Amino acid sequence: xxxxxxxxxxxxxxxxxxxxxxxxxxxxxxxxxxxxxxxxxxxxxxxxxxxxxxxxxxxxxxxxxxxxxxxxxxxxxxxxxxxxxxxxxxxxxxxxxxxxxxxxxxxxxxxxxxxxxxxxxxxxxxxxxxxxxxxxxxxxxxxxxxxxxxxxxxxxxxxxxxxxxxxxxxxxxxxxxxxxxxxxxxxxxxxxxxxxxxxxxxxxxxxxxxxxxxxxxxxxxxxxxxxxxxxxxxxxxxxxxxxxxxxxxxxxxxxxxxxxxxxxxxxxxxxxxxxxxxxxxxxxxxxxxxxxxxxxxxxxxxxxxxxxxxxxxxxxxxxxxxxxxxxxxxxxxxxxxxxxxxxxxxxxxxxxxxxxxxxxxxxxxxxxxxxxxxxxxxxxxxxxxxxxxxxxxxxxxxxxxxxxxxxxxxxxxxxxxxxxxxxxxxxxxxxxxxxxxxxxxxxxxxxxxxxxxxxxxxxxxxxxxxxxxxxxxxxxxxx
Length: 479
Fold this sequence. Notes:
By secondary structure, this protein is an alpha+beta fold. The chain has 18 helices and 8 strands. Strands 3-2-1-6-5-4 form a 6-stranded antiparallel beta sheet, sandwiched between helices. It is elongated and about 125 Å long. The chain has helices at about 5-20, 25-40, 75-85, 105-110, 145-190, 195-210, 225-235, 245-250, 260-285, 295-310, 325-330, 345-350, 360-365, 370-380, 390-395, 415-430, 445-455, 460-470, and strands at about 40-50, 55-60, 70-75, 90, 115-120, 125-135, 330-335, 340.
């Protein structure tokens, strides 16, 4: 074996090692054509990948065509013929062969002389694509040794291309699953439509921003493209566990459910009718009634109902604001056969919720979505570079001082990705305009609340500083 041939084979082995670890298809194809150009001492090289479903060859990586994608019908041109017939084609002069399409030369001004085109055969000897070299630099035609080397290089490339295409398929599969999951989440709670996407956008923007920091606490922080994708998936799926929360609890806007308010309203109507019935029955029996007694009773019921309507709103009320509710507990309605309470103990308890619309048990059920998220996501066989998705999503409601849920983690136990997600989640929840139980806050007010949380040691103050100073929050449109 000549020393030159030995060096070329050694070079092919080295590029095979590099190809075996490269998963980005365009990068992989670029490696292959550079090595083919070097090994064959060719002026230009190109690779066409077979799209069997469309009966086409396509390429985004070819000398002279790096910025554009070209497609060739299977069977047409030199590359199409080689792919269809699975045969090496070695042309000393391309213009002597009718299969050569001269239009490329005419459009680019390039002059093709010799062409060596070989099929790239995969693990099962199927054609994956073709690799071709143009114009040896010594102006000589390609020889049999060149054919052998190009076939060898093409065979190595074919397996790597199949792996890269499989990797792309897996990525598309995960992307489709994640998008479908977000649709499922938002279908159960339409009021939060767009929340998952906005949280993902904010979280990734914050990660990219601290990745660029050259000074300060994040000067050594680096987030790779794969880590950023992992973080994005975790942010998109951070509320996935809401599919395990009962829908009426998930979308509860007021302290009373609609059917509870309706029952209470019917009871008040019954109380009004009963008051009128008792009043006029007494008059019919000849019993004197104080002037304005009925109007006073009806006005009292109207006042009680106003108190209920006010208390039913998910606003923050002081303890004294519930005095009127407690006064109603002693009121009863005399029906035809039995007495009724004007307001039940359960209704009083719900209307007395001091903040928001959820009772303690309902809030616990809502908070359980984080545990559901972790359980569901842990059942998915994530690839190695996405293995932390469940953990990142699981910790987005943890607080640095251990006051969060579901695990009460301390600062050192909370992944930095989850800390970023927590800031994004809180900001979007405060500023979202589509929540029926609260008004959207202005940006400045939301940032002030986040700052207060940071001062209390609940969210990461250093991350929040970057979030505010870099105006990361300007990167989303509110829903």
